[in-house]
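Reference record
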Amino acid sequence: MVLLSRKADYALLILSYLTEHPSGGNAREVAEQFGLSRPFVANILKDLCHAGYVTSHRGVKGGYALHRPTTEITLAELLEAMDDGFQLTVCTAPEAEAEPCGLEGHCPVQAPMGEIYRRIMDVLRGVTLAEVLTPGSLKHARSAPLPMIAESPATCCVAADAVAALA
């Protein structure tokens, strides 16, 4: 199970490159650095620019540079901007974007999964890109294990698996 989309993963790589190269860079340079598709990198750079994370400069010396300090951008904010909303399950999507679920109203794991999603987002809101992009900065930032939020044995297994994935 992958929680980060390829687009979000590449956005992190691109931002790491721009952090290491304060004078900026272009799609070709970033693509070559990481062995990525240049058109995909260019599209992500456009999205990052549109979302206000990077700024673009035209011309011979043109390219992209960070627009906001990485200390002011949270991982949750970036993931939501890159993936048009980060969600754990169909039922944890924002109300306006939620897909209909045939089990809604009588699903035994909907509430626990909603709580796990809330906790994950709380953690992601507490992590800045500066922490992600600085080697070793998260080593000692582990918080206490998340307590179980189960009401029944069936729910306990699902919640335990989800919490274990966070550890």
